[in-house]
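Tip: read the tokens left to right.
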């Protein structure tokens, strides 16, 4: 193995002695190939994947090339890595959760308390997708509803969700993301965005000031499952003409963080098994 690349230890087979007639072994193996990539091994060779999964080199190659054809893996001919499309698998999981039902009452209470619009979103590939929303007033030129998507790099919820990714997932995001300039304030330099995401991860919330649309300020907080994994984001949006960045920090961040914690608590009760995921 090349010097400087992470070492990959073989994973012993842990297959049960008996499988039901319904069991699709190729699906299991394909998922094992995806799971071979992680924070300490985000770029692997064919041999690495074969050793980590217990597959033969020929089988590992077939699965890797199939995943490449489907857009979940990229390769330069020697090294393989995941693409941001694997995030769609996580989104499929989130979309089946009770998150919108659990969150909606909390959004209504939060919006009534601070008189600003509030939303919940999840990350899908390089975009955020709205899954719940309470609109107090229309402050954007476009109408937002459940299913609306925006580029993650230009939104507060996107910053929170990106800051919650593993190192490997974040690297995959930067490979495929197009950091388009939407306003004069949009951060488009990867280095600056990485610095901002590190700050968000440390402080536990994000504020975006007119990066998505002129005049729009928003602040977001993460919603975590019981393992501490960020699975969604909640935000408040306001117009820059009636709030300052400092007033957003002092007046909107505290109730926003309270709401995020309340949603987490209710989600753990409403879907305990999924909350562990």
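Filled-in amino acids:
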């Amino acid at each position: 193995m090349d010097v400087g690349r992470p070492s990959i230890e073989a994973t012993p087979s842990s297959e049960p002695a008996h499988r039901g007639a319904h069991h699709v072994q190729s699906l299991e193996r394909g998922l094992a190939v995806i799971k071979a990539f992680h924070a300490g091994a985000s770029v692997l060779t064919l041999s690495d994947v074969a050793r980590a999964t217990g597959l033969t080199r020929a089988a590992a190659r077939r699965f890797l090339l199939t995943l490449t054809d489907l857009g979940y893996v990229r390769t330069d001919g020697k090294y393989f890595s995941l693409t941001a499309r694997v995030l769609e698998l996580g989104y499929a999981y989130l979309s089946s959760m009770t998150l919108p039902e659990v969150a909606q009452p909390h959004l209504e209470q939060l919006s009534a308390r601070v008189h600003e619009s509030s939303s919940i979103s999840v990350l899908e590939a390089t975009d955020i997708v709205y899954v719940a929303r309470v609109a107090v007033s229309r402050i954007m030129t476009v109408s937002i509803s459940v299913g609306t998507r925006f580029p993650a790099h230009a939104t507060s919820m996107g910053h929170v969700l990106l800051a919650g990714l593993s190192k490997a997932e974040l690297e995959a995001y930067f490979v495929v993301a197009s950091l388009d300039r939407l306003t004069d304030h949009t951060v488009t330099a990867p280095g600056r965005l990485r610095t901002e995401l590190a700050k968000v991860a440390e402080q536990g919330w994000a504020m975006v000031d007119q990066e998505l649309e002129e005049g729009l300020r928003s602040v977001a907080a993460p919603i975590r499952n019981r393992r501490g994994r960020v699975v969604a984001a909640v935000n408040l949006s306001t117009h820059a003409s009636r709030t300052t960045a400092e007033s957003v920090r002092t007046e909107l961040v505290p109730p926003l963080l309270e709401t995020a914690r309340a949603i987490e608590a209710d989600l753990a009760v409403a879907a305990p098994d999924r909350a562990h995921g």
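The domain at 89-275 is CATH 3.30.450.40 (Beta-Lactamase). The longest strand covers residues 230-239.
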